[in-house]
Amino acid sequence: MSTPGTTALPDGGLKNPGPGLITLDPVHTALLHGLDGLLTGLAARLGAPEVMGPPLLAADTLARLDYFRNFPHLGVSAGRFAPEAFDGLAAGEAPGELSLRPTGHLLPSATCYGLLMSLEGRDVGEDGLRLSATGRCFRNETHYDGLRRLWGFHMREVLYLGTREGSVEHLDGGASFVQELAGRLGLTLTRAVADDPFYDKGGSRARLMALDPVKHEFNAPDGTAIASVNRHRNFFGERLDIRAGSHGPVYSACVAFGLERWVHAMILAHGTPERALDVLRDARA
């Protein structure tokens, strides 16, 4: 006999806490974890060990990486209550009316930032370095839309740091993996150049990006970008003084997967979460 309250959800399922905030039920959760398990296949194929990035990113370092110039609207700042607010909190005052102090940190908007910042001033060696991680990411979007656009979501990334040639090979292998996995899962994806500014909105870098794009996205039939391949050139290597032995500042690149968006694409392709989970289980067999 099952223990009461442990196996059945209440009528109406789980309530979402607010715009851009979703609580995944057991089927959606199994889909997300199962998909992440399949996506680690790229990390295994490329020999990228699993790590865990930091939960907060220093704002001053992000500024050195042109983060705020490129994405002034996306950042979600971490604040803490000022000591003078403690008495009010203890007395039951509304938290939204009490003062906050900045911590000098932001919540991550992409998994790779924390990994790259953790390597500042390091030499990754002549053969370069690969790392893989899944992180919870946060973005202050203009609007939210189901699993397609969330305030907080999970991002799997496989990161490469090394030579120019190695970064190209990394992205070629990542792009092939995305299409191969999509075929196994019954997903039809189209590849398109992304229009993110990434480095800056004007000047020589923007002109260079127009001629030689640094980001391509893989889109589901409804236009949802569920994966991307991102070539950073030697931008982070120079800004963070990350070197690859005699090769000098590293060239870096990452393959990124939005896990909730993969769940969305699976349901879009297969009709229901339950059917999508069956297809996922067959793909893992």
TrEMBL record:
Domain of life: Bacteria
Record-linked SUPFAM superfamilies: Class II aaRS and biotin synthetases (SSF55681)
Keywords: Aminoacyl-tRNA synthetase, ATP-binding, Ligase, Nucleotide-binding, Protein biosynthesis
BP GO annotations: tRNA aminoacylation for protein translation
Claim: Nucleotide-binding is one of the keywords in the record: yes
Aminoacyl-tRNA synthetase as UniProt keyword: yes
Span of domain Aminoacyl-transfer RNA synthetases class-II family profile: 42-285
GO molecular-function term, one example from the UniProt record: ATP binding
InterPro entries from the UniProt entry: aa-tRNA-synt_IIb, aa-tRNA-synth_II, aa-tRNA-synth_II/BPL/LPL
Entry protein name: Amino acid--[acyl-carrier-protein] ligase 1
Species for this entry: Streptomyces subrutilus
Lineage: Bacteria, Bacillati, Actinomycetota, Actinomycetes, Kitasatosporales
